Amino acid sequence: MADNIRQFPGAEVPEQTLSVERRPFGFCAHEKITLDEHRRTVKCTACDKVFDPFNFLQTEVHRLQDAWERHRQVRASLAEHIDRVEALKKEEARLKGRIKTAKAKVEPPIDVRNRAL
Ligand SMILES: [Zn+2]
Q: Which element (helix H / strand E) includes 62?
């Protein structure tokens, strides 16, 4: 500071005691959750976001119900596909039998040794 500049008396800015905590940049999917037994809180391990325990449990219940419903639908679809594959295998065997019979009728076996042509 130059010698001819003096600080105005009484104009000191008070020390800043407030601050804003910045979250890490980027989206957090809150994939890993920690239950703090001491504070009885539910929080994200990655970003430390604290969740309301009831809302968290409710969300998890809905997620599990949806997963079980999708599981039930996939099993039903699988059973249906297995039935269709079995029906197609039977149809394939039936058609192969018909082709074999039809070929036997159209093309009599050629007996080359006895020259029966
Ligand atoms: Zn998170």
A: helix 53-106
Q: Which two tokens stand for residue 13?
A: 């800015």
Distance CA 97, CA 1 (A): 105
Q: Which residues of 2-16 are buried (b: 16+ CB within 10 A; e: fewer)?
A: eeeeeeeeeeeeeee
pLDDT at 52 over 90: yes
Distance 69 CA to ligand 1 centre (A): 27
pTM flag (> 0.85):
no
Ligand 1 centroid to residue 4 C-alpha, Å = 54
Q: Which residue carries 């979250």 as its tokens?
A: 23
